[in-house]
Amino acid sequence: MSAVAVLGLGTMGRGMAVNLVAAGHVVTVWNRTAGAEVSGARTAASIADAVRDQDVVLYCLSDDAAVRAVAMGEDGVLAHVEAPTVVVDMSTISASLSDEEHAAYAERGIAMLDAPVFGSKGEAEAGGLWVVVGGDDETVARVRPVLDAVSESVHHMGPAGSGARMKLVGNLLVAAQLQSLGEGLTLARAAGLDLRKVLDVVAVTDFRTPIYDGVGASILKDDYSPAFALHLMRKDVALIGHLAKQVGAPVPGAWVAAETLEIAAAEGLGELNASALVKVLADKAGVDLAQR
């Protein structure tokens, strides 16, 4: 078993810490907001305290700014971690910041992986996340038992930065599905179709997806409780756009989703689930997607 520090006890980090404790790892936790604890884990007083003498330090934070503060700030991980500790960034961040992190840790002789995850609150709590990793083979092998404890599967995508890039590719597909689901349900409702019957068809066709099934059912119940908040999806779509511009790839669907997410955020829907973007489309058509 490994000594593991988990920095950041939001929805994802807390679930990871709980599952690491359950797997028998010796876990230390630290959170920027004091008072957050995990049963069976030691609560550190500072980042320096948290990362001292650890086999693995992992963090799953909300955005680039949070990673810069916690990992690369004056009193952050980079300032205190020592080899042979391995650092694992499981956040969804820009590819450019991931590259910057790798370079900064390498300069200090610290092994690092970028290992963002697919999944949300339920998967984090159940240890069923899907991890996409960038880094060298030896480092991935060293931390594999830690990654296995929080995930259903681990996918080594290639060298440093590959995990961060794969996460943005995946979130492009998620955003496109949410946008298309909203458009489809709105069109169906405006055309007079029974949305329950629409979803029955969608569930058995060759274009079915778990997102259409799960999110579609929640939309019909008017349930937008946050498993993955809309403001985070908005942030991720912006990162997708930046990466696409850097590599010269056309992503017109991302720009459509970005516009819908911007409107949704402006209408105060940012703390709801990302699926709340469908409300924007339904409102424009003057229809109600809830089936009461």
Automatic annotation (TrEMBL):
Gene3D superfamilies: N-(1-d-carboxylethyl)-l-norvaline Dehydrogenase, domain 2, NAD(P)-binding Rossmann-like Domain. The keyword Oxidoreductase applies. Residues 4-158 form the 6-phosphogluconate dehydrogenase NADP-binding domain. GO terms for biological process: organic acid catabolic process. The keyword NAD applies. Residues 161-281 form the 3-hydroxyisobutyrate dehydrogenase-like NAD-binding domain. One of its GO terms (molecular function) is NAD binding. Keywords: NAD, Oxidoreductase. It holds the Pfam family NAD_binding_2. InterPro entries: 3-OH-isobutyrate_DH-rel_CS, 6-PGluconate_DH-like_C_sf, 6PGD_dom2, 6PGDH_NADP-bd, HIBADH-like_NADP-bd, HIBADH-related, HIBADH-related_NP60_sf, NAD(P)-bd_dom_sf. The active site is at 167. Belongs to the HIBADH-related family. This is NAD(P)-dependent oxidoreductase. It comes from Georgenia yuyongxinii. The lineage of its organism: Bacteria, Bacillati, Actinomycetota, Actinomycetes, Micrococcales.
